Each structure stands twice: as C-alpha cells, then as structure tokens.
Amino acid sequence: MSDLAKRAQLTAIEQSGWGQPFRLLQPHNASFWVYAVGVGAGAVSIARYFGSGGAFYAPAIVGGVLLFGLYLVPWLLLLRHHNRFTSQPAGLLATAFFWGGVAATFWIALPANGALLEIWAKVGGTSFAANWAAGLTAPINEEWGKALGLVLLIGLAPRLVRSAYDGFIIGAFIGLGFTVFEDVLYVYNGAAQGFGVDQLGTTVQMFVVRGASGIVSHALFSAIFCAGLMWVLGRTPGERNVVGGVLAMLTAMAFHFAWDDMGGLSGGGPLITVLPFAIGVVELVVLFFVLRHAASRERAWTRDLLGPEVESGVVDPPLLDAASGLRKQRKAYRKSLHSRRKARRLLEGTGDLAHEIARAGGADTPRVVHARSELLRLRDLA
Length: 382
Fold this sequence. Notes:
Helix content: over 70%
Number of strands: 0
Largest sheet: none
Number of helices: 14
Radius of gyration: 23 Å
Structural class: mainly alpha
Oligomer: single chain
Shape: elongated
Strand content: under 5%
C-alpha cells in the first residue's frame, strides 16, 4: 500500500465525516434546543388542530396515516439507494424527516402561510390572491422553514453534514416528512369540507391526487434547495459555489411557485391539463442534473477511501468504478458480470467494506478484516 493512497484515504474520511456517530440529545448545544422547541411546538399544534374533530373524523385520519405510511415505503427504498456514497446515519435522517413533518409543517408553515395569505388578499384583492397568493407565500415560508432543519443538523453534526450531496439527501428526507404530514392534513381538511360524508372515499381520492403530485413536490424542492444551500456554505474544500448554489435555491422556489400557482399560470384555460406534466418533466431533469453534480465530491471520496483496497487487490478497478459511479457505471458492471444479482452483492459488499473502513478511521479492525474477507469470498463466487 502506497503512502499516497493511505493519505488520500485518511483525508477522505476526515473531510466526509463518514463513519461518525449521530447523537440528537445534546443539552449543551443550542441547535438541539431550537430543534426540540420546533418539534415540540409543532406537536402541540398537531394536537390542537386535530383535537377538536379528531374523534368524528377518525376514519379519515386513520386512513390517511395508513395510506401515506405505505406511501413512505418506496420513497425510503429509493432514498436508501441514493444514500450509498458516504452514507448518513439512519438517526440523522429520521431527525430530518420529523423536522420536515412536525416543525416545518405545523410550527412554521401553517401559521406563517395563513398570515401571509391574508396580507396578499388585502394588498391585491381576492382575485389576485386566488391566482397568485399561494405561489408567493409557500416557496418562501416552506422552503426556508424546511432548510432550517438542515442548518440545525449542521449544528448538531458538523462533521457529518459536509457536502452538497449531504444537503441533497437530508433535504429530500425533510421534504418527504413535510409531504407526508401535510398530506394527512389535506385528508383531514377534505373530510371536514365534506362534513364527514364518505370519509374513506375522500381519503382514497386525496391519496391518489397527492401521492401522484408528491413525486415532483416537497422532497424534490428540498433536495435541490438544500444542495444549493450547501454549495453556498461550502463546508468541504473546493466545493463552494455561491452562484450555482443561489441558482439552485431559486430554481427550487420557482418550481414550488409554479406548482402552487398552476391556475394563474395557465390563465384558467386548457393549458391547465398539460402544464403539470410539462413542469414535472423540467423538474426531474433539473433534479438529476443537481444530483449528478452534487455527487461528484462524494464519488471522489469513495474512490479515495477504497484506493488502498484497489492497490492490495481486494477491489478491482471495474468494481471501484461501479461503487463510486453513477447509473451508467453500475449498468456496465452488471453487464460485464452477466448477472444483476452478483453485481448487487459485490456492490453491497464493497459498500460494507468502505463503511467499516470509515468507522475504523482507516485502521485494520476485526470488523474491517471481516468485511474485506467477505468481499473476497463474494468475488471468488462471482
């Protein structure tokens, strides 16, 4: 093993913070108390909001919780797949999710949106407010309210939250929490507007509409916005990009504006049936563009961390390319092995080895030795 490869490995571990534990309970950290106040106040707001009619609208609430709980499953699998580079601990991601769902939704967005919507109605009149108030309100209150969760996580785990890709993944979890809790709120409001008639039917209808739009909604907005915020902050050497970061944040807010003011943008005409699909396509293109660029630093860290393993022959170059690459590299690797299953197992084994090396700070601990031997066994089988 060369000294150069070992130094690059240790630098990658230090810069990425990979392998560091996450601890939420930090009584001497101001970020913890802001988080606790936000989530606590949000929880009180939830109790007050649902408390008065909770018993009567129980079928809608329970149905909404169950359906959107199931809705979480594919999202979590997708985000787990993307959290494969210098991966974030589950506890940190759960903390992000509950900030988005409880604090950002009920502590910040609900009262702030109500106040600002009233101001727009007074300033521009009811017609102006109906067409444009939502889009002039939510992108400000909601995107910054969600991003506050990322800022607090930087305060709680400064060594873990370093790159734009960290911001992308954490932002997606914050946005997912916001989506799920907001959608249950929409289910409740829908049942209340129908005076409790056919609550389960209303719930299913709301699930279909909100579930479909959720693909290009808060998780996407927050992933782009928080990646941009991390580019502005530049918490890892060479990654600061103020102009690109501000553009990403403004783009996320513009998408949010367009989604909320679809009626105003379409002029109430037939364009309303086409506009959601057109905006959705543009959003996904931008999302993957931001994802590719945000992942570049993480991919470099992964290569550096596994560099000594390549020199020793544990990881071969094609496997390294696949483990640190994008979909194109992984697809090429699967094709070279003529087996999706073997490629998946080898990639998982490589990820396990990288994780153990990071946890050990580059040392050869028993867990590292075991992960290395297991990867070699999988390579022999392949």
